Amino acid sequence: MEQFMVEPVLGRHIELFGYDVSFTNSALFMIVVFIALAVFMSGGLRRQLIPGRWQVMAEGAVSFIDNMVSTSIGSGGKKFAPYIFSLFFFILFANLVGVLPLAIVPGLHTFAVTSHITVTAVLAFVSFAIVLIVGLAKHGFKFFSLFVPHGAPGWLMPVIIPVEFVSFMVRPFSLALRLFVAMTAGHILLEVFGSFVVQGLNAGGPLGWLVSALSFVMIIGVSALELLVCAIQAYVFALLTSLYLHDAVHLH
Q: Fewer CB near the terminus (10 Å): N or C of the chain?
């Protein structure tokens, strides 16, 4: 479970005025994600008349997010495209970096920053705060009409309004937990099958070799599934944030 442990990179904790300011593996892999994203987007800055494959991929990524905000948020959604773009590709790259097989190099192991609830919670609450700020700035106190579904009968309001309020307030928790659980579960599953491979080889004999072989096949299958989960979770997080922004911009 070393991949889930936040540890100082230099091997010891550094304290300043009583606070731990150590440079951790979590911070290191966030920088790795930032550099990977910057390198990827540098291909889109070339603006060649006949684009190469790299430029096509970068421009395709921008176009993908542009279509998402246009469809999900509607009119006025263009201004949120930079935030949705940053959100989607930070999560996607962090997820993909987290499944790199660095453990095959002795002494190294990767670190999935999105498998920590603190990181996913920050992303979720920042998104939720933007939704609140946009809604209150655009509509003022009318924003609270979001909790009153259009066309609902008046006698149901004492029930509907509390339900709508609770469903609204749990949005950041559901965003954070969905990504955190999905990434953590995949990594734990790979760890379990990896331990089965080692234990089977150590046990020896036909049964041990069979367990190792089957576990190795499962690792390949789960790894392929994990790559799909990396993309799906980034897409779901960005899409739900877009839909919440649609509610803030247009209400019901």
A: N
Close Cβ partners of 174 (under 8 Å, ≥ 6 residues apart): none
- Residues 191-202: tens digit of each pLDDT: 888 888 888 888
Q: What is the pTM of this model?
A: 0.86
User: Strand, helix or coil at 16?
Assistant: strand
**Cβ atoms of 114 and 94 closer than 8 Å:** yes
- List of residues 6+ apart from 44 with CB closer than 8 A: 55, 58, 59, 61, 62
Quick one: pLDDT at residue 11?
A: 73
* Chain segment 3-14, per-residue pLDDT in tens: 677 888 877 778
- Other Cβ atoms less than 10 A from the Cβ of 105: the count is 8
Sign of CA dihedral 61, 115, 1, 230: negative
Strand 15-16 relative to strand 19-20: parallel, antiparallel, unpaired? antiparallel
Distance CA 38, CA 44 (A): 10
